Each structure stands twice: as structure tokens, then as C-alpha cells.
Amino acid sequence: TTVERKEISSAVIKRLPRYHRYLGDLMAQGVERISSQELSVRMNVTASQIRQDLNNFGGFGQQGYGYNIKDLKTEIEGILGIDHKCKIILMGAGNLGRAVATHMPFDELGFELIGIYDAAPLFTGLKIKDLPIKQMDTLGDFCRLHKPQTAILCVPDDSAKELVAQLYKLGVHSFWNFTHYDILTDFPDALVENVHLSDSLMTLSYQIKCNF
């Protein structure tokens, strides 16, 4: 079933990676099928919520049988686009950038990390996952040749705005943003997923405060 993206709420989309993760765990345990009720117990989401979410994209389950885990995982990969490889570059090879590059399983999540950049000359030539850290003055030629679609921003906040403007002109219009720069203010048609670690920790702080 073809579904217009605008019809699907962002809340549903944000739950799909969690379904994918749980289904992957079940596959690793050798489980072949599961009912929405059984999945709801594992995920602490109601069975009706699971059925509603998945019905947005067509009927994947069978009455009395449940979901074929491998098939459903494959369907979700198609919906999320992780069955295709999107070229991604990392901007900033400091502690956070190195951690992201080293520990994120990009190839399992629909991305291919093809380049790493940092403004610090002392990093130039060092390698992360067999990719040499490049100097910023080669960014233009690299983007024109390899055409990355996405950039991970692990740079200082004060350099983020200028860097995004440069990347946008080079055809990079989607960003996984670890900085505090609000990209959509200047580039409203960009695709942005913000990761604010401090916001997340402050939210936890609020929850702790409210429970004491």
C-alpha cells in the first residue's frame, strides 16, 4: 500500500525504529512470529497502538497468526529507507565525533560513512574506521565528486552556522545535528534531526526531582 508521508504522524515514525530494534532482538533469539499482544508486553506499548501504527503502512499481521518477525522487520526497513544506503559525512572529529563514527553501525541503519572532516590540522591524516580525517579546504571538491546527502554535525556551536551554509550550497540538505544551532531558522526546507544531549539529561533531572 502506498502511503503519503504527510499522513503519518511524527510520533508513529519515531516509534518505528523501536519496533525495528525489538524485532531484531527477537530474530537473534530465534523467534519467528509474534502476536501484537506478546510484542506489547515486551515493549510496554498497547497492542492496539502497535496495530494502529503498523496499519498506517498496510496490513502486516494475520489474525490468529500474528506477525512474521523477519518479514515485518524487512517491511519496516523499507518504510524507514534503511534498505538503501545514503552517503553521509562527519563534520568534527573531536571526542564526540570520534565516538559517533566509531560506535554507530551506519551500514545497518541505511547510511554509508564516506568522509570525515575537522578544522584542526593535528587530526589530518589520522584514521577512524579506515577513513582518513580530511582538511576543510578539500570539502568542496569532495562533495562535488562524491555527492554526500547528509552531514553529521559534531562541531563547536560558533562554527556550525557557517559550515551548514557551506554544506547546503554543496548540495547537502539533511543533517544529524549535535550542535545547538537551529538549522531550520536559516534553511527551512532542510531535513534535520537534532540530538541535544544536555536537553535529554535535563529532562532526566526533572524526572528525578519529581520523584523525590
Quick recap of the structure?
The protein has 212 residues and is an alpha/beta fold. The protein has nine helices and nine strands.
Span between termini: 49 Å
The proportion of strand residues reads: 15-25%
The helix content is 40-55%
> Order of helices and strands, N to C?
HEHHEHEHEEEHEHEHEH
- Cross-sheet strand order for the largest sheet: 5-6-4-3-7-8-9
Low-confidence stretches: 1-6
Rg from alpha-carbon coordinates: 20 Å
On the 0-100 scale, what is the average pLDDT? 91
Class by alpha and beta content: alpha/beta
Number of continuous helical runs? 9
Count all strands and give the number. Answer: 9
Write the layout of secondary structure elements.
Layout: H1 10-28, E1 33-34, H2 36-43, H3 47-55, E2 67-68, H4 69-80, E3 86-91, H5 95-103, E4 111-117, E5 127-128, E6 131-134, H6 139-146, E7 150-153, H7 157-169, E8 174-177, H8 183-186, E9 191-194, H9 197-210
Parallel strand pairs: 3-4, 3-7, 4-6, 7-8, 8-9
Antiparallel strand pairs: 1-2, 5-6
Helix pairs in contact: 1-4, 2-3
Keyword list:
212 residues, alpha/beta, seven-stranded mixed sheet, two-stranded antiparallel sheet, disordered N terminus
What does this structure look like?
The model is unreliable at 1-6 (pLDDT under 50). The protein has helices at residues 10-28, 36-43, 47-55, 69-80, 95-103, 139-146, 157-169, 183-186, 197-210, and strands at 33-34, 67-68, 86-91, 111-117, 127-128, 131-134, 150-153, 174-177, 191-194. The chain has 9 helices and 9 strands. 25% of the residues are buried. Helix 8 links the parallel strand 8 and strand 9 (191-194). A 7-stranded mixed sheet has the order 5-6-4-3-7-8-9. It has a two-stranded antiparallel sheet with strand order 1-2. With 212 residues, the protein is of the alpha/beta class.
